[in-house]
From TrEMBL:
UniProt cross-references to Pfam families, sorted A to Z: PadR, Vir_act_alpha_C
InterPro entries, per the entry: Tscrpt_reg_PadR_C, Tscrpt_reg_PadR_N, WH-like_DNA-bd_sf, WH_DNA-bd_sf
Protein name: PadR family transcriptional regulator
Superkingdom in the source lineage: Bacteria
Gene3D superfamilies from the UniProt entry: 6.10.140.190, Winged helix-like DNA-binding domain superfamily/Winged helix DNA-binding domain
UniProt organism field: Paenibacillus arenosi
Domain (Transcription regulator PadR N-terminal): residue spans on this chain: 9-77
Domain Transcription regulator PadR C-terminal residue range list: 91-174
Transmembrane region(s): none
Amino acid sequence: MLNTLSYGLLGLLAKEPCSGYDLMLRIQPFWQAKHSQIYPLLAKLERENYVQYERIEQRDKPDKKVYTITDFGREAVMEWLGEPPAETAFRDELSLKANCIWMTDRNTAAPLFLARMKQLETKIAYYEKLLTRIPEEERHIRSKHFGDYILLNRAISLAEGQIEWCKWVIQMLEDGQDV
């Protein structure tokens, strides 16, 4: 049985062949995964015939493997798509700190939310840049870029909502209201 990240990697490979590094970059806007997770999964997927790879020689760098999905891998993704998604897991250090905010003062608390706003603004700019790379004619349900298009819009919307929440908390801190 494959884990969710495995299916995500297979889905990305269904779009186009990629190296492990390229897969890491492509999945980052939607799923946090590191090299240390992706490369062992790719090796497992290759052993179990979900993917295959071609070794590409490079000058001044180690050879790289470019992976493609197999028919078996494609079938696994299609089966996975028909299953209901798991409940969203939410892990956020700022949320843990917000739960303890009553223990500190506004001069300590406000910078936490200002820093998060800056992080989110940077993410939005990055997501908007990625959106510009999807041509208008590829923003339809039958395009292999449609998932990217709707997920980038979702990421922007969620980040904008978080920025509004941060502004609200900062305003409450400035007004001296009880949280």
